[in-house]
Amino acid sequence: MISINHYLALATVMFLCGTLGVLFRRNLLLVLMSVELMLNAVNLVFVAGSRLVNNLDGQVMVFFIITVAACEAGVGLAMVIALYRRYGTVETSFLRMLRG
Amino acid sequence: MNVTIPTLTSEFYGASLPVYSLCVGSVVAMLQGVSKRFGSDKAVLAVLLLSLFAALGGVFFGAPSVETSYLNGGYLVGDLGRVGQGLILGIALVVTLMFSATFLRRKFLRGEVASLFLMIVTGMAVMVASDDIITLFIGLELSSIGLYALVGYINPSRRSQEGAIKYFVLGAFATSLLLFGFALLYVATGTLRLSDMAQILPKLLDHNWVRLGVLFALSGLGFKLGLAPFHLWAPDTYEAAPTGITALMATAVKVMVLVVVVRFFAGSLGAVYDVWLPATMFLAMVSMIVGNVMALVQASVKRMLAYSSVAHSGYMAIALCALGGTSNDFPVAALLYYLIGYSIISLGAFSVLMWLENDQNDNLLIDDLAGLAKKHPWAAFAMAVFMFSFAGMPPTVGFMGKFFVFNAALSNQLYSLVIIGLVGSAISLFYYLRIIVRMYMSEPVRVAVPLVPNRSWLVCGIVGTAVVANLALGTLLPEQLLKSLVSTSQEVAAKKVKLAPVAKAH
Q1: What torsion do the CA atoms of B329, B125, B154, B112 make, to the nearest 10 degrees?
Q2: What CATH number is associated with residue A50?
Q3: Is the dihedral of CA B207, B281, B293, B345 positive or negative?
Q4: In terms of CA atoms, which chain B residue is nearest residue A96?
Q5: E-strand stretches of B72-227
Q6: CB–CB of B165 and A80 under 8 A?
Q7: Interior CA angle at B233 toward B230 and B237, to 5°?
């Protein structure tokens, strides 16, 4: 029998994969994908939680997260394209002007 | 499942007038972006000012006198939300006027930029008036996505695009952390409404999901506030963004997040203070140390102010820690006082910088300010007042703010935080005074691009008002303002779930 803990474990693993991707990937497109993976882990928790506590708020939240993630990806990809035009690459190691 | 459809009364439309007028302004400005006839910079400025003033009017005259929540908690209007919205709209107004008076005028007063700007302000106004995680999230993202875009779009250059992408990646990361925390809280409590959470959480004190959820949510909010060790985006983004947008990020974003954090800590998460109190104390200490020490070695003024804003976030986090202490309502009032003071000082300092900048040099170094007192004595005087005020010297609002915050912390026995705060203020004197020394005591160095700002009565008025408000709040008026803020904090304190006295963490 699959319980809520299974869903949470899967979501945690997905979330950690995304976190590691954001922190260690050097390609901006892969970083964006990692962020999406983290958001999808969150979606999984909301859906599983909505089933567990028997109300629909979690499902509504998931729709909002999907929509907003799409907007975020739109803005992010636009920035990546602008950077590609300027630098000719999307590797983060080229971002060296600011010492951060 | 039975759903009650809420009835929307005229009272609701009055209360949500700020959000409506900003939305309408944003759409109109977007249309102006493609119109040749109505798309001049004057017309865009008119739309910006009209919708901001309409929203301010809505904040002061449209809201009901008692705290009311509409749309099943989706929109909450009360004193705290009203203070937050008023402050955010005021900041947005000042930033708009400063942009219109300085060298980025034509670049800022374009339809699409103005539309994004108004959307950011809408998001902030929604977020401070939310009692529901869905609206909170929408408000937060509406403001964040607009900011990601505006950092790199207003004045595109290598530097600003790089800062924008860094801000975007770390901001999106922070949003996912925050959402993961909320998701765990939702699984544990079964509700997305903050005020319902406050009722349910006391029954789930030892629940691991709750603890984990609170920590994730706190780290996400810490990112947005720029608290160390989550501050890495702040110096880069502050330096990269056009100065007006930097001012907006330093002040309005802090207002938005802190109002929500106050709702969390004093209301819904009041029961699990033993989770967030040590975490927030840690964030406050690290921020005060890292911010003040790193600011010592910066050459760029904006970068120095970024680290100083990390340190100031730390001071504000002291007041947040004091929220966990007792049931008294002073910490909220102290926090809001500090926030108002900090907004005035920051806006003033960034306005002076905006006035001095030009096309070739939009990232002033501290060396560029050398000898400013000889060339522009009044600007140097205003800058000196703001620097003293940042450092917390009497008789400025910075001193009163720190005084109230430390007072609130002392009455809750947070001695270690107060000691670190005082040491941090002592360190901060060094780098704030360095600017004053450079302005007054060194000869002008020959810089590549001389600063030749034009005379503008608008800039004069804004900076002058900031100086006067700064000194007035520091000397004559602190009691009146604090008294009016205490009524706000009583509203928050009334919602706090009564608990046994806290075992103090030293």
Answers
A1: 180
A2: 1.10.287.3510
A3: positive
A4: B162
A5: 75-77
A6: yes
A7: 150
Q: Token pair 């908690």 is at which residue?
A: B73
Instruction: Name the burial class of residue B441, with classes exposed (0-12), middle (13-18) and buried (19+) by CB atoms within 10 angstroms of its CB.
Output: exposed
For the whole prediction, is pTM greater than 0.90? yes
Q: Residue A21: give the domain boundaries.
A: 4-93
| 3 state SS of A21 | helix
In the DSSP assignment, the letter for residue B164 is H
Q: How many other CB atoms are found less than 10 A from the CB of residue B342?
A: 24
ipTM of this complex? 0.95
- The verdict on residue A99 lying in a domain is no
Residue B325 has a pLDDT of 67
How many Cβ atoms from other residues are within 10 Å of residue B494's Cβ? 12
At residue B164 the predicted structure's pLDDT band, cuts being 50, 70 and 90, is: very high
Cβ contacts of residue B36 below 8 Å, gap of 6+?
A: none
Residue B75 pairs in a beta bridge with B70
Beta carbons of B19 and B85 less than 8 angstroms apart: no
Instruction: Tell me how crowded residue B217 is: count the other CB atoms within 10 A of its CB.
Output: 24
Which pLDDT band, with edges at 50, 70 and 90, does B452 fall under?
low
In this predicted model, which residue has the larger pLDDT, B75 or B87?
A: B87
Closest CA of chain A from B107, distance in Å:
18
Q: Is residue A98 part of a domain?
A: no
Q: Note whether B321 and B280 are within 8 A (CB).
A: yes
Give residue for tokens 């760029």: B300
Measured CA to CA, the distance from residue B295 to residue B317 in angstroms comes to 19
Average pLDDT over residues B428-442: 90
Interchain proximity B161–A72, CB inside 8 Å? no
How many structural domains are present in chain A? Answer: 1
Q: Nearest residue on chain B to A72, judged by CA atoms?
A: B145
Contact indicator for B320, B265 with CB cutoff of 8 Å: yes
Which residue ranges make up each domain of chain B? Answer: 157-493
What's the burial of B4, exposed, middle or buried (CB within 10 Å: 0-12/13-18/19+)? exposed
- Cβ proximity of B23 and B122 under 8 Å: yes
- Rounded CA-CA distance B413/B227 in Å is 22
- Give the one of A49, A54, A79 whose C-beta lies nearest to B164's C-beta: A79
The tokens 């950077």 sit on which residue?
A83
Q: Which tokens in the block code for residue A60? A: 């509504």
Mean pLDDT of the region B249-277 = 87
Give the contacts of A79 (CB within 8 A, at least 6 positions apart).
Answer: B148, B149, B152, B161, B164, B165, B168
